[in-house]
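User: Let's play a game. I give you a shape written as tokens, and you guess the letters that built it. Ready? Here's round one.
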């Protein structure tokens, strides 16, 4: 936990700019929503939906890190500390 907390504010370079304190943690309310979702019955229909193509286009411009993460997730999955193509 200590390592994750420290890494959440580690210095980084984004778009050529140096940022020394960007906190990347989830709010407690977000964690609670995830916890509640984990309590759903296995056959429950998930009310959440994926990003539309239009929304993904906006992410590319406004939130490139999130877009990159979603693109990576679509192409790869991780198991046992290794990456495997989804195709």
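Assistant: Ready! My guess for every position:
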């Amino acid at each position: 936990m200590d390592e994750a907390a420290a890494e959440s504010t580690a210095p980084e370079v984004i778009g050529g700019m140096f940022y020394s304190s960007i906190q990347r943690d989830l709010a407690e309310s977000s964690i609670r929503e995830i916890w509640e979702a984990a309590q759903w019955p296995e056959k429950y229909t998930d009310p959440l939906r994926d990003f539309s193509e239009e929304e993904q286009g906006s992410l590319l411009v406004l939130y490139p890190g999130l877009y990159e993460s979603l693109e990576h997730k679509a192409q790869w999955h991780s198991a046992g500390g290794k990456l495997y193509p989804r195709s």
